[in-house]
Amino acid sequence: MKRHIGLISVLTVLAAVLFLPVLISCNDRGTQLRQALAAADSLMMTDPLAALDTLLAIDSADAARLPRADRALYTLLRTEAGYKCYMPVAGNTTAISEAVDYYRRKGPEDRLARALTMQGAVLTECGDPDGAMLAYKEAEPLLERSGDLEQLGLLHTRIGELYQMTFSNTAETVYRYRKALECFEAGNYEHRLAAANLTLSRILLTEADSTALWEKYYRKGTEYAIASHDTLYIVESINQSAQFSLICAKDSLHAARIAAKTLLNNDYTSYLSHSLFNSFCQIAADGYTGAERTDSSLLFAGMMHLGNIVDSMNYCHVLSGIMEADGNPDGALDYTRKAHAAESRINNESDILDISAFEHEIQNSYDKALYKRNAITLVLIATVLASVTAVMTVGYIRTRKSLKRTRRKITDNLHAVYGTESRKGCETSEDEELERLFAAMRKRLAKERKARKDMADITGSLLSVTNEMLKSYYKYEDANTFRRSIDRLVTEYLSPETMPAKVIGTVNAAYLGFLDGLRASCPRLTDKDIFIIALISCGFDNESMCLLAGVKPESMMVYKSRIAAKMGIEERLTRHISSILSSYSPENTQSFT
Fold first, then answer.
1. Which pLDDT does position 367 carry in this prediction?
2. pLDDT the model gives residue 79
3. How far is residue 68 from each of residues 22, 65, 97, 103, 109, measured CA to CA in Å?
4. Residue 169 region by backbone torsions, left for phi larger than 0, else alpha for psi between -120 and 50, else beta
5. d(CA 448, CA 442)
6. Residue 377 CA from chain centroid, whole number
7. What distance, in Å, lies between the first and last C-alpha atoms of the chain?
8. Integer angstrom CA distances of residue 188 from 148, 149, 150
9. Which helix (H) or strand (E) element contains residue 460?
10. Residue 28 and residue 22: Cα distance in Å, rounded?
11. Containing H/E element for 199?
12. 392, 457 contact by CB (below 8 A)
């Protein structure tokens, strides 16, 4: 038996020796991967290509073995880096959806917003604009709360691109691009201003009566592009200049020469995207057609890449113009029909993809959800106020009964004094004692009357607040209007200027003599200290006390500590006040005075 135990021990030690380096190696590898993810995350906004290189260095098998949180971050960063580097991201649909689900359950909100933005970009590339808009609209309030103006500006840009690609609403496209520009300008993100201005000017170039606005944004965008040596947007600026010469200035030959020169410039070739390349070809072809140089027009028209229906429509328009210039009306008519057929198909698809209506529908559903949440909050506030009123009323009734018992005892004692025959020789001293007792009784009765009035005032205020909140609940359907109504109620009934007298009066009504006794026993207490003690006596929590007293949460803790020091107590102030009030009765009022 001992030999078997010894053999097992030896095998255990050997296994530990063999597998310990493997475990250490795995742990080191996990640390290295997390460091690589952190480095890629820090580079994402400033140098997405470097971030992509960092992520590509991570083996996919190692990434698959990462914990769920790290795997979600890896997916988010790979999608972001690929999208920013103009790589196709349509194949990431499942992975980015898993990342969104993880951040929706676990947070944080800023990464959920980024994941939703990337999900929208992926769905856009997959041809699902409705799904993309749904993701973007979920991300929008998250980014507005976070205050990240750069990410919010990029989100407005994505939504503007969605409107632009579906040809559904030019006004909404311009609105979103302007919102993006406002975010970048407010956040001083100068590296974004060239793209934001030139993107907006491109939309305005095609709009009637927008020449002045186009020139404003075009000039600013070009200046930023040149100052930052951004070749991509320098080429975009050249393209818009050529389009302006062709469409607005009616200088066809000048526009054609600008476009041809750009296409033949090797410094710009690598910066020409598919759409930008076709745009230069179309400008050159239309320009030479207007200058009656159809041979050159055919050359540049033949260079166009027909990758989608929009390219085909533009190609047919170009050839229609060339045929008409060559005196071939039948050929021109044939290409015109083809162009109109493609345009009708695009219009029909954009009618089906009514992104603007879908966005408003999503926004309305979010507003209804917010209104419902506010209504629930209102009901909870009304319930709390009603509960406080009920507690105060019960306390008042109990105090009144106790005062009645006290008055009865005093009366009995007075009758006992004046019914004693042996004390007739001390009539003067007895009269003085009687007058003192009656003075005390009158003082107590005056306090009782004031307590009843204070209780009636605070009860009326609470009922008024409840009534106004319920009235607002049924009157205002708009969430912002409802919020302003609640803000007005807080300012009018629960402001730091009006509440101290009401709360102190309520405590005096419920615990007669308590606050006066504290003032007498501890003269160092200020009016604000007494107000905070009164709030504690009413059972308000820290958040409510901060609102009613008009102080920050951290300041409230300091106030409580100072009050405890002034009173000379070592335990927590709330616990001390609660222990005093739990044993309170009108008979021991003198202990506080």
1. 64
2. 92
3. 22, 9, 13, 10, 17
4. beta
5. 10
6. 19
7. 83
8. 12, 9, 9
9. helix 427-475
10. 10
11. helix 193-205
12. no
Q: How far is CA 293 from CA 253, 254, 284, 300, in A?
A: 9, 13, 11, 11
Query: Which is nearest to 282 in space by CA: 317, 254, 309?
Result: 317
Q: Residue 148 is encoded by which pair of tokens? A: 């990240």
Q: Are 373 and 181 in contact (CB under 8 A)?
A: no
Those residues of the chain that have pLDDT short of 50 are 1-5, 7, 10, 13, 15-17, 19-25, 351-352, 417-428, 589-593
CA 530 to chain CA centroid, nearest Å: 38
Whole-number Å distance between alpha carbons of 244 and 257: 13
Q: Give the pLDDT confidence score for residue 391 in this predicted structure.
A: 83
Is omega for the bond preceding 129 within 30 degrees of 0, making it cis? Answer: no
Write out the two tokens for 97: 């959806």
Q: In this structure, what DSSP letter does residue 91 have?
A: G
Residue 237 has, within 13 A of its CA and on its CB side, a CA count of 22
For 573, the 3-state DSSP assignment is helix
Residue pLDDT, tens place only, 495-524: 666 678 778 877 877 777 788 888 888 888
Length of the chain: 593
User: CB of 517 within 8 A of CB of 580?
Assistant: no
**Cα atoms in the Cβ-side hemisphere of radius 13 Å centred on 565:** 6
Cβ atoms within 10 A of the Cβ of 182, count?
15
Specify the 3-state DSSP secondary structure of 582: helix
Q: Is the pTM of this model over 0.70?
A: no
Q: What is the CA radius of gyration of the chain?
A: 39
Contact assessment for residue 403 and residue 586, using Cβ atoms and an 8 Å cutoff? yes
**pLDDT score of 567:** 86
Q: What does the block give as tokens for 429?
A: 């001293």
User: Which 3 state secondary structure label does DSSP give 308?
Assistant: coil
Cβ neighbours of residue 458 closer than 8 Å, sequence gap 6 or more: 392, 502, 503, 505, 506, 509
Q: Which residue has the tokens 């038996």?
A: 1
Nearest to 114 by CA among 149, 86, 151, 66: 151
Query: Distance between CA 278 and CA 346 in Å, rounded?
Result: 18
